[in-house]
Amino acid sequence: MMEKERLTHARATTRRPSDTLLGRFYHDERGGLLILSLLLFLATLLIGGVAIDLMRYENERVRVQGAADRAVLAAAMMRQSPGSPEPEDIIRSYFQAEGLGHMVAAEGSIEVTNIGGAREVIITPQGQMQTLLMRLGGIDSLPIHVAAGASEELAEIKLEIVMVLDVSGSMADQERIENLRIAATDFVTEMLGDEEGDRVAITFVPYST
After folding, report:
1. Which of 32, 113, 184, 200 has its CA 20 to 30 A from that of 166?
2. Are the beta carbons of 148 and 109 closer than 8 angstroms?
3. Burial letters for 51-64: b for 16+ Cβ neighbours within 10 Å, e otherwise?
4. Under DSSP, is residue 139 helix (H, G, I), strand (E, B) or coil?
5. Is 71 found in the same domain as 101?
6. pLDDT single digits (tens) 171-181
7. Residue 97 near residue 119, CB atoms below 8 Å
8. Residue 74 backbone dihedrals phi, psi, to 5 degrees
């Protein structure tokens, strides 16, 4: 009888694995969805971060491309005369005004070629854009590489004309825009139609804001 009581007491005092703290933690299924939610949140954050950085990259690339296009046009059209700036200086001044001077600081990023009566300007700005959230995936920066070129015949120009044409919403009326087309066409025909037409340069600048 005493032996049977001792066995019953031993079984009563022996803990099952599920009764221990580790066992209860192992068998407890509460909070499982929280872990999945955290993983999904991190994945969403990473995808959103990629989208944000790519949008920033595209905006920066467009800004650099715009500065490059304006710079090469100005450098190609600049008439060489004593005391006038060099095409390279013009290009660098455009980029410095945009806060992008470092992108044309490398040797070979600006090429100016004068052949006969023509000038050709080619620039290849290069730089890096620091990422904000893509660095969580190990990408600290994105390279920016653009190119722009322009050429201009260095012929003797007697008269330079800039036609600033309004194409804003105020010209939505069909009669107004048609009158503008007729007036611009007649003016250009008149200026280029005489014997001095080959010494006249006309530039069009449409604006909407």
Report:
1. 200
2. no
3. eebeebbeeebeeb
4. coil
5. yes
6. 888 888 899 99
7. no
8. -65, -40
Q: How far apart are CA 25 and CA 18, in angstroms?
A: 9
What predicted TM-score, i.e. pTM, was given to this entire model?
0.56
Which amino acid does the sequence have at 171? M
User: Would residue 146 count as lying in a domain?
Assistant: yes
Do 172 and 120 fall into the same domain?
no
Residue with tokens 């929280």: 34
Same domain, 38 and 78: yes
Task: Compute the distance between CA of residue 154 and CA of residue 199 in angstroms, rounded to an integer.
Answer: 11
Helix ranges (H only) for the chain are 2-13, 21-27, 32-77, 87-97, 174-192
- Are 68 and 123 within 8 A, CB to CB? yes
Q: Which domain holds residue 174?
A: 159-207
> How does pLDDT run across 18-67, given as a tens digit for each residue?
556 676 666 666 766 777 778 888 777 777 778 888 999 999 999 999 99
Nearest-angstrom CA–CA distance, 99 and 112: 22
Q: Is residue 21 part of a domain?
A: no
In the three-class reduction of DSSP (H, G, I as helix; E, B as strand; rest coil), residue 58 is classed as: helix
User: 102 with 198, same domain?
Assistant: no
> Which residue, 206, 205, 189, is CA-closest to 197?
189
Q: Token match 């959230």: residue? A: 133
- The contacts of residue 69 (CB under 8 Å, 6+ apart) are 148
